[in-house]
Amino acid sequence: MVRNIIAEITQTLPLRLLNTYTGALCDRDAQISCFQDSVQYDELQSSTCDSPECEQSIRKTISEYFGYITLSHRWGPGEPLLRNIQGSSIYDLDGGEGFAKLQSFCALTLRHGYRWAWSDTCCIDKDSSSELQEAIGSMFAWYRNSALTIVHLADVSGTTSFADSIWFKRGWTLQELLASPRVLFYTQDWSLYMNCTSPNHKLDAAILAELREATGISELQLKNFSPGVLDVRSKLQWASTRHTTRAEDVAYSLFGIFQVSLPIIYGEKTPGALGRLLAEVVSQSGDVSVLDW
């Protein structure tokens, strides 16, 4: 039973996670190996289970062990990629601002009580087209399943409103904001935005009002967004002022929001990628009027 539950839960995890205790990058086999070396695993192996309540308790223990925190941020110069940290501890590396940001994120994740952390910079092998396809198709679910998303606003100081942050102008961060059920905003020096100690800034009235103003998204959608092909025009409007580094990502960053699965074809440029996306949305919704948008 324990092995089956481990297999089930780890299949929903990102392909790689950072172990905040050691700073090591771990694939799923390494994640499972860490759990098998843990006190929790020993306790489960030595217990007996003969009731649904017991099975539920086992599932809860395993789920809590594999809980992870995701990072949402604007990429800067010198971000560490998978090849830069593979086989090393992130805490031992010195490579400039990007490495310092990743170290601060992992340390903050640990202070929140979680062993596992995920960053899009180093936890995806971007040299593998098949892995990149899987990651883009799964990213909405990874953020939705995370215990917490930490948003680092590198251009916001302690006294500045976050409404003008470049984070609100990037394409991928829209998906990260909408998918994440629990979010905390941190400023340039890793202080809580507005010194707000709420466990979820999406539920804080003052921050929620600022979010609504900065994004044009209603409070209901910010707090409880459902992906899919309903209200397509609103979703396209939210994305219309955002930009991506690679042209095709204008469309690819919306796959999770519309809950569509399409091939990733870098090189097709924006018209081709957006055209395929809108064709799929029309096919699923039956609403051709979205093309007028």
Automatic annotation (TrEMBL):
Protein name (database record): Heterokaryon incompatibility domain-containing protein
Q: Which InterPro entries match?
A: HET
Taxonomically, the superkingdom here is Eukaryota
Annotated Heterokaryon incompatibility domain ranges read 68-158
Q: Which Pfam families has this protein been placed in?
A: HET
Lineage runs: Eukaryota, Fungi, Dikarya, Basidiomycota, Agaricomycotina
